[in-house]
Design a protein that fits this description.
The chain is mainly alpha-helical. The protein folds into four domains: 1-35, no CATH class; 36-320 and 327-349, no CATH class; 385-471; 482-530 and 544-635, no CATH class. Helix 3 packs antiparallel against helix 4 and helix 28 (494-504) runs parallel beside helix 29. A six-stranded mixed beta sheet has the order 1-2-3-4-5-6. The radius of gyration is 43 Å and the shape is rod-shaped. The chain has 31 helices and six strands. 45% of the residues lie in helices and 4% in strands. Keywords: ANK repeat. ANK repeats lie at residues 175-199. It holds the Pfam family Ank.
Length: 639
């Protein structure tokens, strides 16, 4: 007898102890039921669920009606799963038990309620984990539950009703959602991820073989469900089905979530082809920056959604908003940011054509920020030479400066704004209005500054004076150079001529110069015999020549000249102009080609900035004629 009790206990432990009552009859502590082969609490969960189910379905009509016991069952499942992950074994046994008759209708409802979790209410972590565990258990066995509605989807409902223990329930159910739409609408990204993972396994073809999902969809087709085709039973198409109430796809449902929007969209876009619906366009129309960012975070999707049309949407004024309460300013800022995001994500140069470029350039605010967002490799080479023309036409000074610097050759390109119009230089568009009529001076400040930028670039880019003169032929333009090289310095005194010149042109009414001169060239200063000086020991006491300096000062102060690209002065061999003053002139006029004939010029007098700017420097030596003579030595650019 002493051995009978322990032996009986061992035999009971070896079998499945199904309830606390059996454990007590066996003389075992209540905790013994946690130690069977199924894992901790598995049997207790199974028995508890079965008892609750039996109680709730005692009246057949109540099985799945308004007073359904499913909420109680779900609460028990969640409660036990929060205690231990191993409780899932008991849940699975309960759903697989033939006596409980847990059919797809019940599983679908459990799944729908499990994913209907409002993350905005900040549920505790254990609650989320438990619901996710239950969700995965349900869809691992029957993935199709996540994508269907057992009552309102024609054809699919037949498959549910035929195997349902309570067909009356289908008449009472008013819920038209699917678990996937519900999880997306709540922003439950982890749940969506599991559904998509199991959906791929169930629906998508591998190695050319039919899947269970294909067989199911083809069976549903016989019930007039989806129009069946090989492609239509793939997960890509299934994920594009609309909610029967809201007509939203899962993607659009996710955009309406109170939280988890970005994460949920990213999970849905793992099936990249679903991005083709109108969700992205809808987000652009409503200036939803969060959704736009989520779409653009998927490189595989970007090439599909970033197009000329989508960019033009962000560059157009917002339409009247039908939802939300954001003010006009916040919407404008969001639209600006979306435009920058799209332009920065362009993967096809066709998306940044002339129409888009012009739309950006003529924009009143944020235009430069949007433009600078683009990858220069995505800009069509055929468009680059004519961006300057667009900027000039629309009087956008900041863009004129940018394009003139990035594409300097464009100042000498001809282009027609209209398809059948005459081709014109950029400067023409600054001097004529939209109707092609000449604009009379004085110009406004913007037009003046644009003219300055263009003419400066033109003078730099066109070395031939004849060509440059032809380009300016139809424009009001000042002198492009200062040339006294043809003056007869052998017969007349240069200094006297210069004094007379300055005196006659003090007002600047008869003569005007551009801000940038192509060159300034002087006549030889020591060919008049009467003025030719000889070297003396007391040369430092000799008269200091300043005629060239006086002309340069006049050009700057009276004529407004700021830049002289090339400066050529054949100075005196003896007693030339002062080197230090000469260096100041080179720096002040930003000289690039410096040819001042003076023996033994000291490079140390030149300012570092002036040295960096000089592209050509002519040096003259007073050494032996047989070795060097007085011909210039052209120095490299870096001094």
């Amino acid at each position: 007898m002493a051995m009978e009790g322990p032996s009986r206990r061992l035999s009971l432990i070896g079998t499945s102890i199904g309830s606390p009552r059996i454990a007590q009859q066996a003389g075992l502590p209540r905790s013994a039921i946690f130690n069977d082969a199924k894992g901790p609490s598995s049997d207790m969960v199974f028995e508890t669920l079965k008892d609750k189910w039996a109680e709730g379905t005692a009246v057949k009509e109540k099985r799945l009606g308004e007073d359904t016991p499913l909420k109680t069952i779900l609460d028990v499942m969640i409660k036990e799963l929060k205690k231990s992950k191993n409780a899932i074994d008991g849940v699975k046994r309960f759903m697989a038990d033939e006596k409980t008759k847990i059919d797809d209708c019940v599983k679908w409802r459990l799944l729908l309620d499990a994913v209907d979790l409002d993350l905005a209410q900040k549920p505790d972590k254990d609650e989320v984990t438990a619901r996710l565990q239950l969700t995965e258990a349900l869809i691992q066995e029957s993935p199709y539950l996540a994508f269907e509605n057992p009552t309102y989807q024609e054809g699919a409902s037949i498959l549910y009703i035929n195997n349902c223990a309570d067909v009356h329930w289908h008449k009472k159910l008013k819920d038209k959602r699917t678990p996937l739409h519900t999880a997306a609408r709540k922003g439950n990204a982890k749940f969506v991820k599991s559904m998509i993972s199991e959906g791929r396994r169930y629906y998508d073809v591998k190695n050319g073989e039919s899947t269970r999902g294909e067989n199911r969809v083809s069976g549903i087709n016989k019930q007039k469900y989806w129009k069946f085709s090989g492609e239509y039973c793939r997960l890509t198409k299934i994920l594009q089905h609309e909610d029967l109430d809201t007509k939203d796809t899962p993607l659009k449902s996710a955009t309406k979530a109170d939280c988890g929007v970005c994460e949920t969209i990213k999970e849905l876009l793992e099936v990249t082809d679903i991005a083709e619906d109108d969700t992205f366009h809808h987000a652009l129309e409503n200036d939803n920056q969060e959704v736009v960012k989520a779409f653009l975070s998927k490189d595989e999707v970007t090439s599909t959604i970033v197009s000329k049309e989508s960019i033009m949407t962000t560059l157009s004024p917002p339409k009247k908003r039908t939802t939300g309460h954001r003010d006009a300013n916040s919407r404008s800022l969001a639209r600006l940011e979306n435009a920058k995001l799209l332009v920065g994500s362009i993967q096809d140069p066709k998306a940044l054509d002339r129409e888009v470029a012009e739309k950006i350039i003529k924009r009143k605010s944020g235009a430069m920020d949007i433009w600078k967002a683009h990858n220069k490799e995505m800009l069509d080479d055929k468009l680059k030479p004519f961006l300057l023309h667009l900027a000039v036409k629309h009087q956008k000074l900041d863009f004129v400066r940018l394009f003139a610097n990035d594409y300097p050759k464009s100042v000498v390109e001809k282009w027609s704004y209209s398809e059948h119009g005459d081709k014109r230089y950029p400067l023409w568009y600054n001097n004529h209005n939209n109707e092609g009529k000449m604009i009379e001076e004085p110009f406004d400040d913007i037009r003046k500054n644009i003219r300055k930028e263009i003419t400066t670039k033109m003078i730099h880019e066109v070395p031939e004076m004849d060509t440059l003169s032809d380009m300016f032929n139809s424009c009001q333009v000042g002198e492009l150079c200062f040339d006294l090289s043809r003056f007869d310095s052998a017969g007349f005194q240069v200094s006297a001529f210069i004094n007379s010149w300055i005196s006659q042109h003090q007002t600047g009414k008869l003569l005007t110069f551009e801000k940038t001169l192509r060159y300034a060239e002087f006549p030889p200063l020591d060919v008049l015999k009467e003025e030719r000086e000889a070297y003396k020991d007391s040369c430092h006491l000799q008269y200091q020549h300043t005629e060239v300096f006086r002309i340069l000062a006049w050009l700057r102060k009276k004529m407004g000249v700021q830049t002289i690209i090339k400066l050529k002065v054949p100075d005196r061999l003896v007693n030339p102009h002062d080197e230090k003053t000469m260096a100041k002139a080179v720096k002040g006029f930003k000289v690039e080609i410096f040819n001042w004939k003076v023996f033994g010029l000291s490079l140390g007098v030149l300012d570092p900035d002036a040295k960096d700017r000089i592209k050509e420097l002519y040096l003259y030596s007073s050494g032996k004629r047989s070795a060097i003579s007085d011909q210039p030595l052209i120095w490299p650019r870096r001094l």
